[in-house]
Amino acid sequence: MNVRIIIDSSVDIAERFRQDVKIVPLTIHFGEEELIDGLTIDKQRFYERLVECDELPRTSQANPTAFQKVFEEVTQAGEEAVVITLSSELSGTFQSACLAVQDYDNIYVVDSKNAAIGSGILTEYAIACAKKGMSARKIAEELERKKEDVCLIALLDTLEYLKRGGRISRTVAFAGGVLNIKPVVTIQDGKVEVIGKARGSRQGNNLLVEKIQESGGIDFDMPILLGYTGLSDALLKKYIEDSRDLWQEQAESLDSTLVCSVIGTHVGPGVVAAAFFRKSK
C-alpha cells in the first residue's frame, strides 16, 4: 500500500523533496490581515514584510479540519499516511492532527519534538523509509525512535525578535544589542534552549561549529539540512566557508533552505542553522 508523508507548513525540507509530501498550512496574521502560509504568502514575501513591519506578526496553528481534508484524500485513494508536525511544545498543530486522526486507522501522527529544518530532516528520513516500501505504522515507529537523534543548532543574528515576541526581557535584549551578542540555540525536549553566546559574527560561526562538534558527532549517512532566515543567504554562505573542515570530505553536497515563516517570526532575519542526526551511541 502506498504511504503518503504529510507535514505542516512549519516543517522545512530541501526543495527536491517537496513533491514527496503533502503540506497542511498554518496561518500568519499581519495586523488584521490573515494569510495562508505557503499559499497566499510565500517565505520570501514573508521576510520582506517582516523587516518592514512595526508590529510582530502572529501565527496560528493548523486546525483539525485542515488535516481531516487531507486524511480523507488519503483514505479515498486507498493509501496510508504518516503525519509529522512541529513540536507540541511550540504549537498546538500536533494536537489538531491528533484530533483529526481519531476516525482513521490508516494514518499515524508523529510529534517531531523539533522545528523547521530539524523536523525537515526527520521528514526526509520518512520519505526514504516510504520509498523502501515500509508501512505507515513501521515508519511512525522508526521516526519515534530516530527523532531522539535529531539535532538542530542555530546562530541568531539579533535578540530583537525574541524580545518583541516576549521570549526575553528588554534589558537582556538591550545588553545583547550593545555587546553585539549572537546567541546559539537548540531544541531540547521540544523547547528552544540557549546553549551559548558569542560576540560578533566570526566568533558566532566558530561557536556554532563548536556546538555541533560537541553534540555527539554527525551521522553523514543520514539527512543533513542547513537553513537561513531573511532576504539573503549570504550569512549561510559565509558560515559554510568558515566551517569547511566540518563538512569537507564528509558530505557530498549540502542542501539548504529558507526557514519557515512560523519560526522566522520569533527569531528574525540573519539566522544560520544546521540540522543533522547524531551518531548512534
Describe it for me?
- It is globular, with a radius of gyration of 18 Å.
- It is 38% helix and 25% strand.
- The chain has 281 residues and is an alpha/beta fold.
- About 4% of the residues have low confidence.
- It starts with a strand and ends with a strand.
- Helix 3 links the parallel strand 6 and strand 7.
- It has a six-stranded mixed sheet with strand order 10-9-8-13-11-12, sandwiched between helices. It has a four-stranded parallel sheet with strand order 2-1-6-7, sandwiched between helices.
Shape by Cα distribution? globular
Content-based structural category: alpha/beta
Helix-strand string: EEEEHEHEHEHHEHHEEHEHHEHE
Strand content: 15-25%
Which strand order do you get reading across the main beta sheet? 10-9-8-13-11-12
Number of discrete helical segments: 11
Q: Distance between the terminal alpha carbons, to the nearest Å?
A: 33 Å
- Rg over CA atoms, rounded to whole Å, is 18 Å
In which range does the helix fraction lie?
A: 25-40%
Give the overall pLDDT as a whole number. Answer: 89
How many β-strand stretches?
Answer: 13
Uncertain residue segments: 167-178
Largest sheet: 6 strands, mixed
Short description:
The protein has 281 residues and is α/β, with parallel strands linked by helices. It contains eleven helices and 13 strands. Helix 2 packs across helix 3.
Fold topology:
Elements (H helix, E strand, L loop, with lengths): L2 E6 L12 E4 L2 E4 L2 E4 L6 H10 L5 E3 L3 H13 L3 E6 L7 H8 L6 E5 L4 H16 L4 H11 L3 E6 L4 H5 L5 H9 L2 E8 L2 E9 L1 H14 L10 E4 L5 H9 L1 H4 L7 E4 L2 H7 L4 E6 L4
Parallel strand pairs: 1-2, 1-6, 6-7, 11-12
Antiparallel strand pairs: 3-4, 3-5, 8-9, 8-13, 9-10, 11-13
